[in-house]
Design a protein that fits this description.
There is one protein chain. By secondary structure, this protein is mainly α. The protein has one domain. Helices cover 88% and strands 0% of the residues. It is built from 2 helices and no strands. Helix 1 packs antiparallel against helix 2. 0% of the residues are buried. Keywords: Membrane, Transmembrane, Transmembrane helix.
Length: 86
């Protein structure tokens, strides 16, 4: 693999990760809204539901943190590629 193919592959991986994170976020928000609107629970069950929803929010946050991390890596690779061309 040459030095031109690697940045393209990194950008494609970033785009795939971004798309899957967007879909995951949308599905989690939809599921949270459905659970909040449709559930009629109290007591221990309500506590359990709130923990599950909090876990979903943590998963969404972690997914976006990973996207930002990969984006920084892609930016560095692109910057290095521009320096190599100079």
């Amino acid at each position: 693999m040459n030095h031109i193919e690697e940045p393209a592959r990194s950008r494609r991986r970033f785009t795939e990760r971004l798309a899957s994170t967007l879909v995951f976020t949308a599905v989690m928000i939809w599921a949270a809204v459905v659970i909040i609107v449709k559930s009629d629970v109290d007591g221990v069950v309500a506590l359990a539901v709130s923990f599950v929803l909090a876990g979903g929010l943590v998963a969404v946050y972690d997914a976006w943190r990973e996207v930002r991390s990969v984006r920084r890596e892609v930016d560095v690779e692109i910057h290095e590629e521009d320096l190599v061309r100079l």
